[in-house]
Amino acid sequence: MDPLRTEVLPDAALRYLLRHVPSRLSQLLRGRRRGDARARKLLLEHLTPEQQESLVRLGYFVVRGNRTGDEYKIWAGTTYNVVRVRDGVRFCFQPHLPHVRLPLADIVLGQALLLRHDEDRVLRMTVRYGRTEPTRRTPVA
């Protein structure tokens, strides 16, 4: 199987995203563990005020890739949560650390930093899916 081929996201996966994106955003913005709070603080230190507002209001923020200049929406989540704005292609990349629970904010920050500073690696190593985009059904309080 070629990990870089583009496919349409299965309906079951899209339903999962629609159901869980609001809870993931809540976890990102209001996690209860001490590590979550530190990770959230670090994420916010790396985001511009516009990106912070977008994350709270829309559930994602936009970063620009360093090589192509493409913009990517990074949604609160860990699986297929990065969407290239120009064509809607979704990307999946996250750290693989067995038996370790990383705070969601650390995962999202890592994705943003990789896109900003090593977009080539992201494009070479990620799994891509067709044009779909998670949506938020509930506003963030």
Keywords for this structure?
alpha+beta; single chain; disordered C terminus; 141 residues; disordered N terminus; 45% helix
Can you walk through the features of this model?
- With 141 residues, the protein is an alpha+beta fold.
- It has one domain.
- Helices cover 45% and strands 16% of the residues.
- It is built from five helices and five strands.
- A five-stranded antiparallel beta sheet has the order 1-2-3-4-5.
- Strand 3 and strand 4 form a beta hairpin.
- Helix 4 crosses helix 5.
- The N terminus and C terminus are likely disordered.
Summarize this, please?
45% of the residues lie in helices and 16% in strands. By secondary structure, the chain is an alpha+beta fold. α4 (104-117) packs across α5.
Number of domains: 1
Widest sheet: strand ordering: 1-2-3-4-5
| Structural Rg | 14 Å
Helix content: 40-55%
Largest sheet, in brief, is: 5 strands, antiparallel
Q: What ranges have pLDDT less than 50 throughout 5 or more consecutive residues? A: 1-9, 135-141
Order of helices and strands: HHHEEEEHHE
Strand content: 15-25%
**How far is the first residue's CA from the last residue's CA?**
42 Å
Query: Could you give the count of β-strands?
Result: 5
Q: Give the helix tally.
A: 5
- Overall pLDDT confidence: 78
Shape verdict: globular
Overall structural class, as computed from helix and strand content, comes to alpha+beta
